[in-house]
Write a sequence for this structure.
């Protein structure tokens, strides 16, 4: 059974995952495995394919991403993702929210450090 | 980062042409993932798209290993598959994932189908969906006949109607049970079918043994057996004719029942 801390980290990652995927796809049209590799290499995120692929599918279903299939010599058609206008709006909204939350939390943490030092 | 290859000079023609021996662990893993997703009610499009992504990842990883000079054999393929998230990881619904086939796809360059194929696939899906409903309804009908038949038999000295209903219950129960069971479904209706199938003949055998002679139950047993053999043969042929990835959610063809377990990936 995961500890409270583990559960908290999981929730943080889960909550930011959609924002991260939107940010990656916003840079350029890309495919699933490339997204998995990019996110897997980011400290703190470390998500894997079992998390990314179902979410990509859901985001496509929610019209946040457009899918273009293209033949691949490696096997089944490769699915390339790019942002829709709805996805761009969503990215903008999530980015603003993230920055506001991040700034506020950062300020609180800084305050706590000051208090700790004063004691 | 794209390492896909279309030509080769040493006999390896790219992952798309994996031999059946190399494909086997890949397919087994993908089937297990699909089953795990099915177990949590993922829609067909969601499963299909996720499996396609996963398959491409595996094949791309194989190609990379090959380009690094590794020999592609079963051990290497298994190592790659073992390094991925286990199928059970796909069985946890983390978000309000879609249930409907509503994924927008544009500029499809690979799935050109003739009108005849499209019509045939649509027809198969319609029949599949209907067949599952019929199985479930048949299971409940069999249980109903079992209860009514028992009551009628015990309340009627001649017992003809009750006997007929018990026979009917047995046939319906056998039909339902084996169709659902052989398709890998762990459903409530399968248990209902099992009750009808097993309790019906026992009651009938006991009552007929008391009421008449021994030949009647033998004839009934033969009838049930013939029914089972014919029904099973037709059903299995139908299931085998449908691509699991084309099957409707919940249909036996989409469960890939004889290949692997969703949790362990082991062959049955």
């Amino acid at each position: 059974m995961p500890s409270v801390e583990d559960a908290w980290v999981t929730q943080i990652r889960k909550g930011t995952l959609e924002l991260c995927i939107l940010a990656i796809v916003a840079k350029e049209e890309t495919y699933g495995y490339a997204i998995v590799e990019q996110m897997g290499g980011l400290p703190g995120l470390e998500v894997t394919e079992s998390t990314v692929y179902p979410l990509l599918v859901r985001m496509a279903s929610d019209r946040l991403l457009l899918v273009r299939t293209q033949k691949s010599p490696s096997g089944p058609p490769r699915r390339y993702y790019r942002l829709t206008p709805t996805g761009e709006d969503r990215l903008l909204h999530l980015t603003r929210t993230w920055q506001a939350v991040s700034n506020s939390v950062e300020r609180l943490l800084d305050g706590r450090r000051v208090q700790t030092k004063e004691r | 980062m794209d390492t896909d290859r279309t030509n080769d000079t040493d006999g390896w023609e790219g992952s798309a042409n994996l031999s059946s021996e190399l494909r086997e662990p890949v397919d087994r893993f993908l089937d297990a993932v699909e089953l795990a997703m099915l177990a949590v009610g993922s829609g067909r499009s969601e499963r299909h798209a996720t499996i396609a992504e996963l398959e491409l990842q595996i094949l791309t990883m194989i190609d990379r290993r090959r380009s690094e000079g590794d020999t592609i054999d079963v051990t290497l393929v298994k190592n790659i598959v073992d390094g991925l998230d286990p199928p059970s990881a796909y069985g946890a619904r983390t978000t309000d994932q879609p249930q409907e086939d509503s994924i927008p796809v544009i500029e499809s360059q690979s799935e050109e189908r003739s009108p005849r194929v499209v019509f045939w696939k649509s027809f198969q899906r319609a029949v599949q969906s209907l067949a599952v409903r019929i199985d479930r309804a048949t299971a409940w009908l069999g249980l109903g006949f079992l209860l009514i038949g028992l009551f009628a038999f015990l309340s009627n000295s001649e017992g003809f109607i009750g006997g007929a209903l018990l026979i009917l219950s047995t046939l319906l129960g056998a039909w339902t049970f084996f169709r659902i069971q052989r398709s890998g479904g762990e459903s409530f209706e399968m248990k209902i079918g099992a009750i009808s199938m097993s309790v019906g003949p026992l009651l009938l055998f006991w009552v007929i043994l008391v009421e008449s002679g021994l030949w009647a139950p033998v004839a009934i047993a033969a009838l049930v057996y013939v029914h089972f053999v014919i029904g099973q043969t037709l059903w299995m042929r139908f299931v085998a004719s449908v691509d699991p990835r084309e099957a409707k959610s919940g249909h036996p063809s989409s469960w890939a029942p004889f290949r692997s377990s969703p949790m362990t990936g082991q062959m049955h």
